[in-house]
Amino acid sequence: MKIGILVREDTMMKCTGKGCLNALLQRKDAFARYNGEIELLTFTHTGGNLNRKIEKMLEAGIKSVHISSCLRAKSPEYETLTKTLSVNFTVVGYTHGSEAGVRNSSLHDIKHDIND
Ligand code: SF4
Q1: Which residues 6+ apart lie within 8 Å of 64 measured at CB?
Q2: Where in the numbering of this chain does the CGGC domain appear (predicted)?
Protein backbone atom coordinates (compact mmCIF):
# COMPACT_ATOMS: atom_id res chain seq x y z
CA MET A 1 0.00 0.00 0.00
CA LYS A 2 1.40 3.38 -1.02
CA ILE A 3 0.51 6.01 1.50
CA GLY A 4 1.03 9.67 2.29
CA ILE A 5 0.88 11.68 5.48
CA LEU A 6 -0.22 15.30 5.49
CA VAL A 7 0.50 17.35 8.57
CA ARG A 8 -0.31 20.78 9.93
CA GLU A 9 1.96 23.49 8.52
CA ASP A 10 2.33 25.46 11.75
CA THR A 11 3.11 22.31 13.71
CA MET A 12 5.85 21.43 11.27
CA MET A 13 7.74 24.52 12.43
CA LYS A 14 8.47 22.73 15.69
CA CYS A 15 7.67 19.06 15.27
CA THR A 16 10.01 16.46 13.81
CA GLY A 17 7.16 14.10 12.98
CA LYS A 18 8.35 11.56 15.51
CA GLY A 19 4.85 10.62 16.65
CA CYS A 20 3.60 10.03 13.12
CA LEU A 21 6.68 8.12 12.03
CA ASN A 22 6.88 6.09 15.22
CA ALA A 23 3.27 4.97 14.81
CA LEU A 24 3.95 4.10 11.17
CA LEU A 25 7.12 2.13 11.88
CA GLN A 26 5.52 0.29 14.77
CA ARG A 27 2.29 -0.33 12.84
CA LYS A 28 0.21 1.04 15.65
CA ASP A 29 -2.63 3.54 16.04
CA ALA A 30 -3.78 4.64 12.57
CA PHE A 31 -1.30 2.30 10.87
CA ALA A 32 -2.40 -0.87 12.62
CA ARG A 33 -5.01 -1.32 9.89
CA TYR A 34 -2.49 -2.33 7.23
CA ASN A 35 -1.66 -5.97 6.76
CA GLY A 36 0.90 -5.87 3.98
CA GLU A 37 3.83 -3.70 3.02
CA ILE A 38 3.54 0.05 3.45
CA GLU A 39 5.42 2.53 1.28
CA LEU A 40 5.45 6.05 2.67
CA LEU A 41 5.81 8.27 -0.40
CA THR A 42 4.68 11.62 0.99
CA PHE A 43 5.28 13.31 4.31
CA THR A 44 4.51 16.99 3.97
CA HIS A 45 2.39 19.80 5.33
CA THR A 46 -0.80 21.08 3.78
CA GLY A 47 0.55 24.58 3.13
CA GLY A 48 1.75 25.94 -0.17
CA ASN A 49 0.29 24.51 -3.36
CA LEU A 50 -1.81 21.68 -2.01
CA ASN A 51 -3.36 20.90 -5.39
CA ARG A 52 0.08 20.27 -6.84
CA LYS A 53 0.92 18.06 -3.88
CA ILE A 54 -2.26 16.10 -4.52
CA GLU A 55 -1.28 15.72 -8.19
CA LYS A 56 2.15 14.43 -7.20
CA MET A 57 0.63 11.97 -4.75
CA LEU A 58 -1.65 10.65 -7.47
CA GLU A 59 1.29 10.34 -9.86
CA ALA A 60 3.15 8.38 -7.21
CA GLY A 61 0.30 5.90 -6.96
CA ILE A 62 -0.65 6.78 -3.42
CA LYS A 63 -3.94 5.20 -2.44
CA SER A 64 -4.29 6.16 1.18
CA VAL A 65 -3.64 9.54 2.82
CA HIS A 66 -3.40 10.08 6.54
CA ILE A 67 -4.28 13.47 7.93
CA SER A 68 -2.12 14.03 10.98
CA SER A 69 -3.51 13.98 14.47
CA CYS A 70 -2.39 17.60 14.97
CA LEU A 71 -4.40 18.66 11.94
CA ARG A 72 -7.41 16.89 13.35
CA ALA A 73 -6.96 18.53 16.73
CA LYS A 74 -6.14 22.07 15.66
CA SER A 75 -7.08 22.88 12.10
CA PRO A 76 -10.43 24.42 11.17
CA GLU A 77 -9.77 23.07 7.67
CA TYR A 78 -9.83 19.46 8.80
CA GLU A 79 -13.32 18.61 7.56
CA THR A 80 -12.84 20.39 4.24
CA LEU A 81 -9.46 18.79 3.74
CA THR A 82 -10.89 15.37 4.49
CA LYS A 83 -13.62 15.78 1.91
CA THR A 84 -11.23 17.18 -0.71
CA LEU A 85 -8.80 14.31 -0.34
CA SER A 86 -11.53 11.68 -0.31
CA VAL A 87 -12.24 12.41 -3.98
CA ASN A 88 -8.98 10.68 -4.90
CA PHE A 89 -7.78 8.79 -1.86
CA THR A 90 -8.85 6.66 1.01
CA VAL A 91 -8.56 9.12 3.86
CA VAL A 92 -7.56 8.18 7.38
CA GLY A 93 -8.16 11.11 9.67
CA TYR A 94 -5.33 10.71 12.13
CA THR A 95 -1.86 9.28 12.57
CA HIS A 96 -0.99 8.63 16.20
CA GLY A 97 -3.02 8.43 19.35
CA SER A 98 -6.63 7.44 19.72
CA GLU A 99 -8.86 6.94 16.69
CA ALA A 100 -11.58 8.80 18.55
CA GLY A 101 -9.31 11.80 18.92
CA VAL A 102 -10.24 15.03 20.60
CA ARG A 103 -12.96 16.20 18.26
CA ASN A 104 -15.87 14.69 16.44
CA SER A 105 -15.76 14.62 12.69
CA SER A 106 -17.63 13.32 9.71
CA LEU A 107 -14.63 11.25 8.73
CA HIS A 108 -16.33 8.05 9.70
CA ASP A 109 -18.90 8.76 6.99
CA ILE A 110 -16.37 8.60 4.21
CA LYS A 111 -13.66 6.30 5.48
CA HIS A 112 -13.26 3.18 3.39
CA ASP A 113 -11.95 -0.23 4.24
CA ILE A 114 -8.29 0.41 3.65
CA ASN A 115 -7.44 -3.18 2.87
CA ASP A 116 -9.86 -3.44 -0.06
S1 SF4 B 1 0.60 14.36 14.42
FE2 SF4 B 1 2.07 14.54 16.09
S3 SF4 B 1 4.06 13.81 15.31
FE4 SF4 B 1 2.69 14.12 13.54
S5 SF4 B 1 3.23 16.19 12.84
FE6 SF4 B 1 1.47 16.40 14.25
S7 SF4 B 1 2.34 16.78 16.30
FE8 SF4 B 1 3.99 16.02 14.94
Answers
A1: 1, 2, 3, 4, 89, 90, 91, 92, 114
A2: 2-96
Output the CA 57–ligand 1 centroid distance in Å. 20
Q: Is the CB of 65 under 6 A from ligand 1?
A: no
Q: What whole-number distance in Å separates Cα of residue 114 and Cα of residue 46?
A: 22
Query: pTM of this prediction?
Result: 0.88
For the chain, domains (ranges, CATH) are: 2-110 (3.40.50)
Backbone angles phi, psi at 93, to 5 degrees: -85, 20
The pLDDT tens digits for 43-87 are 999 999 999 999 999 999 999 999 999 999 999 999 999 999 999
